[in-house]
Amino acid sequence: MRRSVVNALPAIVLAAALLGAWELYADSGATSSSILPAPHTIAQSLWSNAGLLSHNLLVTGEEVALGLALALALGFALGVLIHLSPALRRACYPLTVGSQAVPIAVIAPLLVFLLGFGLLPKLIVIVLICFFPVVVTTVDGLAAVDPDQLKLLRTLDASRLQAFRFAELPAALPAAISGARIAVTVGVIGAYIAESQTATSGAYAGLGHEINADLSSLQTARAYAAAVVLFAFAIACFYTLSLVERRLAPWANQSRGDLR
Amino acid sequence: MPTELQSRAQRHTSRMTRANDGISLNDVSRAYRDQRGASVQALAGISLYADHGELLAVVGPSGCGKTTLLELICGLQTPDRGVLQCAPAALMPQRDLLLPWLSALDNAALALRIAGRSRAAARAQAADLFAELGLQGFEQAHPHELSGGMRQRVAFLRTLLSGKPVLCLDEPFGALDAITRAEMQAWLDRALQREPRTVVLVTHDVEEAVVLADRVAVLSPRPGRLRVEIEVDLPRPRSRTDVTVVALRERALHALGMEDS
Question: What residue of B is the nearest CA neighbor of A148?
């Protein structure tokens, strides 16, 4: 317990210093509070809008969680296929890389047009953003399996499938989670883009939508409060995935145990 | 040593005809391509045999094709020239190559799982041997939690449980400290008394070869050729300070071109 406090101390000190500087700058009157509200104003807004923000967080959280799960499943499957078939690697890899250059803002309205106002177009946007790091880390994880290990399995009469099952799959799974950990932070931005670009029929449209609506109605403090919630959510997702990765691959984290 | 070579050749031909769980290489050559694509002759016309239940030690300088030899015996490579007759062989590689995500017990039982046995049945069969090999209490430990000697024992158990009549051990104790190595040699000696197999033991350690083997084959530098073959017809367990053991060790060192200092 005391160790975890000590570990968290640098982060707390840095955050406090940054917030302090922000507070001083905002209070000095150099900018209008409708452009840069002071941290204490944002905190007040956070408190008084807790209900609204938590409902919106549920909407965005669902999008990110589902989108990430889908990206993990699809990215892992594609990574495995790319690893197993050189032809598929040549066919899919350039397109996979290219998918990252697709201007999401342009195709998002198109997705709404095709798929309606529901969850689906938002999920597609998030998956499109998130699955690439998963593919890359999965392919690298599969390729990093010791060739001598595979040789040994061959002397034990393992089939190609068994070699995959016993050696490659367990090595690649934590790698894929590692990719998802990278993906989740951009995935939150993806959710913001998805909500900004696609209209929603529900009562709560998510934090991204909330931010845009508040900014256009000059409710700047509430927009910042919503951003703070997104910020905290992204951090929580990242560390949850770190925890999952450690659970899945305790052997791989012997030497880098302090990424808490 | 012309007489010894002659008698070896005679024995060799007589044993070639027997169908058993041994191995026999007759005039085997093998080349491989190095990273730049150049052809490297690893083995040149090598003849070796080991009968069922015999331990053949292979010693030689680094790069004399010992690993190639084991991969030929295990069927990972095929000879370019010559005849190789060999019962199915399992490899215990130089590095233990235990799977980090499996427990010690599951690592030992890997071959059984691959053969299609259920997880429970495979574990039960491996657990019986665990106690016998001084590994009891470490069944659920993962490889990174085991000492070097224990990892080697688990790797040996995995090789043994493959059920193959021939075991190829590639410098199994090379990475261990001297005390652990001596313990492991004594342990291997006992394990093979209980569970006789045909063993090809590749080692840098001439003393290890003489203490453990029925026959020691000394190879030349690359390309590997057979320099001399030394019969070790001594009762077990052998002491490394035994006069005959020391004499045989010096003969092997002499054949390697290294004088005992």
Answer: B97
